[in-house]
Amino acid sequence: MNEARGINTGGDFETYGDLNNIKRRTNSFIQIKVEMEVSLRIIYILCLIGSVLSQDMSHEEVMVQLQACPKECRCPQDFPRAVYCDGKGITTIPNIPPHTWYLYLQNNDIEALSADAFRNATQLRWLNLNRNKITSKGIEQDVLSAMSQLAHLYMDDNLLSSVPSPLPRSLEHLRLSRNRISKIPAGIFSGMNNLNLLDLQSNKLMDDAVTEVSLKGLNNLVQINLAKNQLTSMPIGLPPTTTQLFLDGNNIDKIPADYFKGLPKVTFIRLNYNKLASSGVPKDVFNVSSILDLQLSHNQLTEVPLIPSGLEHLYLDHNKISTVSGSGMCPDSVDILDGTNESGPRLRYLRLDGNEIKPPIPSDIVSCFRLLTSIII
Fold first, then answer.
1. Which of 99, 60, 93 is nearest to 80 (CA)?
2. 308 upstream amide cis, omega within 30 of 0
3. Structural domain boundaries of the chain?
4. Of 15, 149, 183, 230, which sees the most CB atoms within 10 A?
């Protein structure tokens, strides 16, 4: 009789009788595995059903939603709140089913937003209209403001000449990049306390369009993107809640001395590709404790501005800086000879390439910024 001895089960060694016994146990194991796979599939199906139920839809509502799905669009049975009409080459918006939360209309040839198309879509949370041909005149009055629950509105890459108005006060994210916007209507953001992201990059905004009047009402804004516009000065009227400020690719040549004192929470500042010279940048203008990432690449700086102790990333590449030193860069409150200073500068990344600086880096810079892990020169 064949025997199999010493089979390790993870604990003590056991002795099993003949090979037939082993086969029976193997078959039992396979059966258990199959049953587990079936159970996992059932759990997966239950999760899908749960996702539908979690959207507060009855079976009747799901059926109504799917039956009302426009022929040009796709309405997934396992995600009935979403309607996909993207990339269909449509020129007008079809009638939207009544229980839609997520509507995808990007990559089409839509020229106008009509109230009729959205008449039943009163529950919209997310509307993507990127890469169409929508003009400001093509947006019917109140068609957007009627969407009282809309949180995300994306209209990048269209033909807008002005920020659409009026907007729903429920908005959290508004993306309008790569249009032809030159105007922000006064008071358009009044009462929009939920808006925390505003993207207006790659438009035609000038200084007189970005003012305290046009930005009034943005009481909880976190990120504003005004890159690649036609600004010649720092925008005024930004809310004190601003954390991320993107101004790359403008024509800004100076920064007021106390500018960032009005932005006590600003953490990320991008001013790459502007016309900043050291004469237009007060030495301590960036000496704000909240700043962690400062980007000043591709400007006309000849000196390094004062670095706040909390700064972690500094981009100064492609300027006209010829010399750097620890005494000139190190925060005033830091003794560069004190190697035990635990509250010293937090700078970890420094980029200086594209200037007129010749290596090596002065040793007092290394002595000051002891957390530096990368220096590009």
1. 99
2. no
3. 4-49
4. 183
